[in-house]
Amino acid sequence: MGVKKDTSVPQKDGDFTNLFLSPIGTSLAFQPSSKAMPVTAHKAYLQIPTSVLPSTGGGAFAVNVVFEEDATGISDISGEKETGEWYTLSGVRVEHPTKGIYIHNGRKVVLK
After folding, report:
1. 11-23, pLDDT tens digit by residue?
2. How many domains does one find in the chain?
3. 41 assigned to some structural domain
4. How open is the CA angle 43-48-51, to the nearest 5 degrees?
5. Which domain holds residue 31?
């Protein structure tokens, strides 16, 4: 589960146990916590049905994560490039540029 802002995540949420990434020696592992844990913005934790966890404390278990679909992302960019337009570095269009740094035809240009 991902969070958009700093959040205190409880140990359990209904029929689910929340697992948090924690160091174990020189490795990292997702483990349950004995209390609510802070999760900072744009981070995540695992939420697993409590019924699949070992009934005795300290038991090991494995979780397989399977990604069945291709990763999403930008696959193609299309469009027409404007010609002759001048922009400031903050993206404001300029009709008559003076001395400074601008974007012209997709490139940075220094006018002296």
Report:
1. 888 998 888 888 8
2. 1
3. yes
4. 165
5. 7-50
